[in-house]
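Hi R.,

Here's the input for the nicotinamide-adenine-dinucleotide complex you asked about:
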Amino acid sequence: MTQKMQAAVVENFGKPLAIREWDIPQPGPGQILIKTEACGVCHTDLHAANGDWPLKPALPFIPGHEGIGVVTALGKGVTAVKEGDRVGVPWLYSACGHCEYCLAAREPVCADAQFGGYTKNGGFAEFIIADPNYVAHIPSHLASRDAAPLICAGITSYKGIKETQAKPGDWIVISGVGGLGHLAVQYAKAMGLHVCAVDIDDSKLAHAKRLGADAVVNARAEDAIEAVKKATSGGAHGVLITAPSLAAFKQGVGMTRKWGTCVLVGLPPGEFPTPLFDVVANCITIRGSFVGNRLDMAEALAFAVDGKVKADIELQPLSAINKVFERLAHGDVPARVVLEFIDS
Ligand code: NAD
Ligand code: ZN
Ligand code: ZN
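And here is the predicted structure with nicotinamide-adenine-dinucleotide in place:
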């Protein structure tokens, strides 16, 4: 008889997840089976469960792309990992390895890329099937619960900051100080940048200050663009928009210094108006950034091993997922919730 596991399942878009039994999957050739220890809850999981984006996952599916656990079984031919290794199953679940983007280590945009917790079942379950060539290797000194937020929120923030091309001593705006943003503040400080944190919630801004932000701006309470320009003497060299709100995107472009780069990583559905004359006449770059490649992953984890970055986590059981989603939708999660799987 097939053994069962507990999983949180999206059966219909926009409806609460079903906490129910699901067959424990078996690893096929080239695959591995992981026993989940912890899985972070990303705002992307909420977009996925709501069916927010043009490319929708097939129903039913198990979300979660910050799952960390121990390899318990190997499919035929697997040599890249061994039983007992601790690995993470990220958003970039796999890619073709051969196209022009894969060859250039731009694998998140590979046309054949699969996405964890989206096109493949993810970490809101007691077991996960993964591709051993694309898992994150978790350093031994990092607890699974602490590593979980780093394999999406961490890598995405770190890569997004790199994509701004801001140099040590430059100013960076981190817009949205939630799961991604509270890590982005720490990465940016560790990378020698001056940080101006922007959010609509004073408690998030106080948190950013505690994490080392040099200036904070409440986008609701003041003219955010003017306030940022004042704090950064003319605009930030780099701007990273993590906020899942379209209002933050237009503002972010306005906060960018002449010749600066505004990097978009937040993914609210929709479009935002771009002030074309200002972008052209000020030579501003606007670019998207989508997680990161496997080297970015190793680098993002190394900051945590060095003690320079630490996720602020709140532990919850899998059964609490619908409450967590509700809070995330209302901006009521202080930083990152991590679902912890404890053997009963
Ligand atoms: P979160 O809910 O934990 O944090 C969002 C933060 O933005 C909150 O602190 C909220 O108060 C703040 N905010 C809301 N409206 C704002 C506004 N107008 N201005 C400034 N701040 C505002 O979410 P998260 O898990 O950090 O994810 C953020 C977004 O990033 C989501 O849309 C998610 O899908 C996306 N994401 C993208 C990638 C990528 O690879 N590009 C990876 C992970 C997540
Ligand atoms: Zn994510
Ligand atoms: Zn490819």
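One thing worth noting: Residues 153-164 form the longest helix (12 residues).

Cheers,
M.
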